Amino acid sequence: MTLRISRKTAVIAALAAGSTLVTGCASSRGGNRGDTAYVARDVESLYMAAKERLDRGDAKIAAALFDEVERQHPYSPWARRAQLMSAFSYYVRKDYTQAIQSAQRFLSIHPGNKDAPYAYYLIALCYYEQISDVERDQKITEQALTALTEVQRRYPDSEYAADARLKIDLVNDHLAGKEMEIGRFYETTGKWIAADMRFQNVVKNYQTTSHVAEALFRLTETNLALGIPQEAKKYAAVLGANYPGSVWYEKAYDLLRKDAPQELASAN
User: Fold this and answer.
1) For residue range 33-50, what is the model confidence (pLDDT) as tens digits?
2) pTM of the model
3) Is 133 buried (19+), middle (13-18) or exposed (0-12) by CB count in 10 A?
């Protein structure tokens, strides 16, 4: 959220009194460096001032100060540390776009650094925390899946990979839910082939999610509607083999008994 000018001016004035800032004006979201002039300071004091701000919950000013560490002391070890802390500060204040950019910049400059796994993980978190409900566009969800998979691929034995695997399962379940929602909508409008394709996608590509049983039932439905009872029976059989006690199998069996009794008879 963008700060009101009066409040932000007060923040800058307080920092100026502490000999951190000289001047300031209303900055845009993310604390742009061009909007605030900083006093030249030794690198350790500047870094600790940034960390103090972060510890106090002022992530916006902390991010700007960490950025200033790099600007004033670009070749020091503190600058490398400050780059990642800047990304984390932007993440804390939910400025995900800036956090991703900062983490990506860190990786472009220090790809082999020991903190690279965390930078990749932070990028994945930024996408993951922006995932919206299944009724909305899922571009961010796809980006989250890509970023989480990258963490797992690059650092399979790290603590970040362990968490990434858990989140990947949740993301896949979310994407499968989106496919199911679209498929159900196509069913209600009589677009059986389009619906069938969505449900097949769930069965083929999201086999470990919680939506597979319903997808198999829906495929039984769509194939009966398309006049292909043999295919409907095939999906119902798969459903019975894998989810024998589920409500979806009971529904599929009742549907076949009603609309394709000859197929059930041939199966016995």
Assistant:
1) 443 345 667 888 889 999
2) 0.76
3) exposed
